[in-house]
Amino acid sequence: QVQLVESGGGLVQAGGSLRLSCAASGRTFSWYDMGWFRQAPGKERDFVAAISRNSARTDYADSVKGRFTISRDNAKSTVYLQMNSLKPEDTAVYYCAATPQSYSSLRNGYNYWGQGTQVTVSS
Fold first, then answer.
1. Number of neighbouring beta carbons within 10 Å of residue 32
2. Mean pLDDT throughout 4-28?
3. For residue 5, with 0-12 CB atoms within 10 Å meaning exposed, 13-18 middle and 19 or more buried, which class applies?
4. 48 with 62: CB under 8 angstroms?
5. pLDDT per residue over 26-51, tens digit each?
């Protein structure tokens, strides 16, 4: 079992920045590829970014490329999502997820999920 806890969400003006963190506990963090997803009200949970267990590979949704950066610190068992140039359409609950397989952009590619952290971007 892996437990995931997100933090760092909040209210920010358009054009601003936030850094989300996801702290993992339980199994060895470096065994897992990690992903970030987001869910806006009334919408499905969508892929945002993912990173391999050794940070060699990353992937991003087209909507966030060039603005968001995923990273991880295996010594701290934490994955981060740096979000810059935020837009109102980035408003959502952001979730981190873990998989012992290679990361995927699909929700069902992940075994473990956090509870989410709210990000609200005002115009």
1. 26
2. 97
3. middle
4. no
5. 989 999 999 999 999 999 999 999 99
| Residue 43, CA distances (Å) to 40, 87, 107, 114, 120 in order | 5, 17, 14, 18, 15
Collect all residues with Cβ–Cβ distance below 8 Å to 109 and sequence separation of at least 6.
35, 99, 101, 103
65 C-beta neighbours (distance < 10 Å), count: 10
Residue written as token pair 């909507």: 63
Residue 7 and residue 116 in contact, taking contact as beta carbons nearer than 8 Å: no
Residue 71 CA to residue 59 CA, distance in Å, equals 11
The pairing of strands 33-39 and 117-122 is unpaired
Amino acid letter, residue 58: T
Q: Residue 101 is which amino acid?
A: Q
